[in-house]
Amino acid sequence: xxxxxxxxxxxxxxxxxxxxxxxxxxxxxxxxxxxxxxxxxxxxxxxxxxxxxxxxxxxxxxxxxxxxxxxxxxxxxxxxxxxxxxxxxxxxxxxxxxxxxxxxxxxxxxxxxxxxxxxxxxxxxxxxxxxxxxxxxxxxxxxxxxxxxxxxxxxxxxxxxxxxxxxxxxxxxxxxxxxxxxxxxxxxxxxxxxxxxxxxxxxxxxxxxxxxxxxxxxxxxxxxxxxxxxxxxxxxxxxxxxxxxxxxxxxxxxxxxxxxxxxxxxxxxxxxxxxxxxxxxxxxxxxxxxxxxxxxxxxxxxxxxxxxxxxx
Length: 312
Known about the structure:
- The protein is an alpha/beta fold.
- 23% of the residues lie in helices and 27% in strands.
- The strands form 4 sheets. Strands 1, 2, 3, 4, 5, 6 and 17 form a 7-stranded mixed β-sheet that branches.
- The longest helix has 22 residues, at 290-311.
């Protein structure tokens, strides 16, 4: 399983997704001299790279930006020999060796790690699709500076929504959080910071039913979940943070998933197809934190190594 001088015809390990779990596994696999390719359809880092400030990852007392942490992980994986390539995977053929099909080419590998993570959940209301990139965003840290000085809306009540509200409050004239419940689900420390911020307000027990505008989004229609009363709220931008959808549409039916689309796995992180493993946010039951994904990447590597040893 030693590394060769050029791309092998058959890789020891193909990792699909370059988030925290995938890159960590790539670091360990490279150090273990597995011929490893990482396939990522966008930039390395996944959801990690979208965080403005990460405060709860060990080793960074003052925090670190998600983009910087992702870049360092990618450089570390490359340093140990993992090859990171930009490619969107469309399907996997489960004959041995596995064939991973992309729009560009096919990759063959003795083992596969699914580490594709999740994508933002959509509201599914009129105007959302039409105004995406024109006042509707799913990434505050990516697009926030474009909305400086404006009154903004954030839809959601979890950690991402409140973290986004705190970040945008530094840029915006004011921020209103629209939440379908009468209390937040975010960690208490985030709630305390948001409640103490004079630029952040809350519209409780409301849901967004439509996004309106002309050249860009200018208002939303919201409805009270109990009374049904509707009202229009003017805004300079809408940031949606209502959860995530696992990226598993490319997987063959032999890889079993739960009702929400998350990949089912054994304690060894192996899926229902021997030789295909899963780690990170896309795994059913995962604790969706960066440190947890890193740990899963390590444990998946150990079991992938054992699997490959048995296959010799």
